[in-house]
């Protein structure tokens, strides 16, 4: 089978399902597993794919994500007679269903069932660990200039909510709302999680936000965006990581 993946987390999933050798094209942003993707032709970016080259590669299937990739590119590929699998899981349970669907599409149903079952087991464990404990009010920031957060209709928020968090911007009308330092201060989250992607937040940015908002510096933490926003084979580890960050924040709140 010949597969093109236009989403980094889906590329990682294909390798985890044992079908990495079937990949004939991936994006420039597909970096995991490093040794595996190094051998695969790059066909542009997630939003700038070389559609003509993809068609020339004659894939049996192109894996796409509704948010990462553009609808017009999917339409062009379909017009060229190429089958596209487009997904967009918004939480861990939907990710498990997506894994099964993709695994079936690429001929690895058993491997997919195993990964999906692991996700579902971790969901149950996360709920048990969070049950009865105080919710941790958090803000999850993905961008600077302007500052941008996530609302409740996002995978990262869902993972943190599953782990015992409560997104202070969950009900915002925009999935990725622009927020001011004043709005962040007014929301008074217990934890402000600064993601390493798409904007690479660093410790000095946490210092900056603490000064701008007047919130205590210990409330700010740099968190790994790959664990909290890559859905697929990384989801089991992502759930555990989300739990660790929420539990650490809860300990900080209790100590304060």
Task: Give a structural overview.
This protein is of the alpha/beta class. The protein has eleven helices and nine strands. It has helices at residues 8-16, 34-37, 51-56, 71-79, 92-105, 109-130, 155-162, 181-187, 203-213, 225-229, 235-255; strands at 3-5, 23-26, 61-65, 84-87, 136-143, 148-149, 165-167, 191-195, 220-223. Strands 5, 6, 7, 8 and 9 form a five-stranded mixed beta sheet that branches. A four-stranded parallel beta sheet has the order 2-1-3-4, with helices on both faces. Helix 9 links the parallel strand 8 (191-195) and strand 9 (220-223). Helix 5 (92-105) packs antiparallel against helix 6 and helix 6 (109-130) packs parallel to helix 11. The longest helix is centred in the middle third of the chain and has 22 residues, at 109-130. The protein starts with a strand and ends with a helix.
Please describe the structure with a list of short key phrases separated by commas or semicolons:
45% helix; 2 domains; Rossmann fold; five-stranded mixed sheet; 256 residues; four-stranded parallel sheet; globular; alpha/beta; 11 helices
